[in-house]
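Lab notebook: predicted structure, single chain.

Context: the supervisor wants predicted structures on file for every construct in the current expression panel, including those that have not yet been purified. This is the next one on the list. No modifications to the sequence; it matches the entry in the shared construct table.
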Amino acid sequence: MAEIHVTGLKELNQFLETLPAKMQANVMRGSLRAGVNVIKDEAKRLCPVGLPSGEGKRLYRLHEGSLQDSIRVGTRFKGGTVAATVKAGGKTAKGGDVFYAHMMEFTGARAHLIPAPSLLGKVFLAIGGGIFRSARHPGMRARPFMRPALDSKAHAAIIAAAQYMRQRLATKHGLDTADVRIEGDE
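Prediction complete. Output recorded below exactly as produced.
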């Protein structure tokens, strides 16, 4: 188990307490964002990338790397608590709908039958230039990328968050952070 050693934390906490609540929240928000960005970058690196089918391109506006593009960081301040998250799935900046992110991470998909939709009374499914009444999806196994990113980069994320806080307090708020040391061993 990796350990992180911080010295000067008491003094740092005392200084944070002197800041107005909004300023404290902004420092914490930036600090947490710096930490979760480390995890986001690793998740993008581990994320499976594949070419979408013609239907995926047409119906969901998917492109190669849509799942990677859907990985994003968010922060919020509610009830006096600052939180940061890394999420995958949903809409991408390019307009794609990555509805399958949770399946890639957690469950995969069982083999199943895909029925053709009924359009104007005609039932057909176009796949690879052929027309079918239904298609059998072979299923897929889960290929986790978010949890492995967290597991492998949690230590680095904590150090990045602490370093950000130390630097921001020194440059924007004039705190002498020379006595604050953040060290880790993996």
